[in-house]
């Protein structure tokens, strides 16, 4: 289930360029009205806890970047999505109860919230990121140290990891469908690298347009949950674009 919330603030709002943690905290605050343990809630797949939601970057009528901060002019839009309908409804109800949300001490008043249409039941889409996708592996160096390797979308293993991640999400939701040999991911634009700081961690992520071919149920999961890793930190949300 996917939602679009629109907020207002008379003077606009200014945030650090890496504001995903602030936004995630506001989302958890809204969720906590109906799901008190929302910070800890997740779906377990072979010992991995997957947080079942994602969200977009903020989008204002205009924006300005200056000296490490980004300013938005209202109205300000946020997309939120979860494959669990009750989870998405809890977020909507939290926003309605709170009258909006607070970011860095600034109140964003809720103007409207609506449910967005589900994707068509097809096995092929053209899409683009509305929050960057990150794919990574934790490797062990010869001296025994742990190292995080972030995949570039032009690498073959990016597609392999993307496919495996989507299959884990299907398992978490109890779906028998898996991405098999017919799975296809192709870039439709040059990837733009994003360096995103989340708390004290740095993530390398990418914005791009792409074509995805797989089972319609998996496309619905990608649409509602996002692609790649760290979705609940504001990574991997996509939107479908019309084919020309």
UniProtKB/TrEMBL annotation:
Domain of life: Bacteria
CRISPR associated protein Cas6 C-terminal domain location: 124-240
InterPro entries: Cas_Cas6_C, CRISPR-assoc_prot_Cas6, CRISPR-assoc_prot_Cas6_N_sf
GO annotation, biological process: defense response to virus
Record keywords: Antiviral defense, RNA-binding
GO MF term list: hydrolase activity, acting on ester bonds; RNA binding
Protein name according to UniProt: CRISPR-associated endoribonuclease
Protein family per UniProt: Belongs to the CRISPR-associated protein Cas6/Cse3/CasE family.
Pfam families: Cas6_I-A, Cas_Cas6_C
Source lineage: Bacteria, Thermotogati, Thermotogota, Thermotogae, Kosmotogales
Function: CRISPR (clustered regularly interspaced short palindromic repeat), is an adaptive immune system that provides protection against mobile genetic elements (viruses, transposable elements and conjugative plasmids). CRISPR clusters contain sequences complementary to antecedent mobile elements and target invading nucleic acids. CRISPR clusters are transcribed and processed into CRISPR RNA (crRNA).
């Amino acid at each position: 289930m996917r939602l679009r919330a629109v907020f207002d603030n008379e003077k606009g709002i200014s945030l650090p360029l890496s504001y995903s943690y602030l936004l995630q905290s506001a989302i958890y605050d809204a969720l906590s009205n109906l799901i008190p343990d929302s910070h800890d809630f997740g779906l377990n797949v072979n010992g991995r806890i997957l947080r079942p939601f994602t969200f977009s970057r903020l989008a204002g009528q205009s924006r300005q970047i200056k000296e490490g901060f980004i300013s938005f002019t209202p109205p300000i839009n946020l997309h939120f999505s979860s494959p669990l309908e009750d989870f998405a409804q809890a977020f909507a109800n939290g926003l309605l109860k709170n009258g909006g949300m607070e970011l860095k001490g600034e109140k964003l008043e809720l103007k409207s919230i609506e449910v967005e249409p589900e994707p068509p039941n097809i096995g092929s889409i053209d899409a683009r990121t509305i929050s960057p996708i990150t794919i990574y592996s934790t490797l062990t160096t010869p001296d025994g140290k742990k190292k995080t390797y972030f995949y570039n979308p032009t690498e073959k293993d990016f597609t392999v990891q993307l496919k495996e991640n989507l299959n884990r999400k299907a398992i978490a939701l109890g779906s028998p469908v898996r991405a098999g040999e017919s799975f296809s991911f192709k870039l439709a634009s040059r990837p733009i690298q994003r360096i995103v700081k989340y708390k004290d961690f740095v993530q390398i992520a990418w914005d791009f347009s792409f074509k995805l071919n797989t089972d319609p149920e998996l496309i619905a999961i990608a649409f509602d949950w996002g692609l790649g890793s760290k979705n609940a930190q504001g990574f991997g949300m996509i939107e479908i674009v019309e084919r020309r």
